[in-house]
Amino acid sequence: MTETTHDETHGGSLGERLNWLRAAVLGANDGIVSTAGLVVGVAGATDDRSALLTAGLAGLLAGSMSMAAGEYVSVSTQRDSEKAALAQERRELRERPEAELVELTGLLERRGLSKDVAREAAVQLTERDALKAHARVELGIDPDDLTNPWHAAWASFLAFTAGALLPLLAMVLPPADWRLTVTVLSVLTALALTGWSSARLGAAAPTRAVLRNTAGGALAMGVTYAAGTLLEVAGA
């Protein structure tokens, strides 16, 4: 029983770390694409460095704050649901402990334990910490490690910001004649890397993810650059 519990805990923590890492990669990817589309679009209309910097910074701040707020709300809702589920489980354990023991036994049986072993394991787990046992086996929740909305918000903010800085700096630092080329090449390289990383984390084939990611980024930059050019021509 000890080995099984250890493996499940280890697997759960590993899965959680991979989920956070995948979210960070996707957040950085969003920052790259959205900011690249913005600064390339502005570059289609003007080559003024201050205008490009202002637009890029505005997009970076707006995007990172939006990502952070959205993640905070989402994870807060999840945390509230987890707390409500734990409160209900705590109430059921207090009001009908025998029925809950039978339920835990059945859940362990469905995981492959024999009836006798499942019953013995359920008894031992209940004696040790009934709420934690039901939370983990029945609800898939660790009551000692609930999701933290602030951690999620900061992670999204930092991931988006890190991704957004690449196209912003690539656009404003080089000489005017090289800005667009440097930005496009930097962005496509970064998108290839994030596509490869997300595919590897999801145990998927990287080639398709890389092509999909770079094609989407190239399309976004092409559309916004064309729009910026048309606006510049119309205003001339």
Automatic annotation (TrEMBL):
Pfam families: VIT1 (PF01988). It comes from the Bacteria. One of its GO terms (molecular function) is manganese ion transmembrane transporter activity. One of its GO terms (cellular component) is endomembrane system. CDD domains: Nodulin-21_like_1. Keywords: Membrane, Transmembrane, Transmembrane helix. It is found in: Endomembrane system. The chain crosses the membrane at residues 20-43, 50-69, 152-173, 180-199. It is a multi-pass membrane protein. GO terms for biological process: intracellular manganese ion homeostasis. This is VIT family protein.
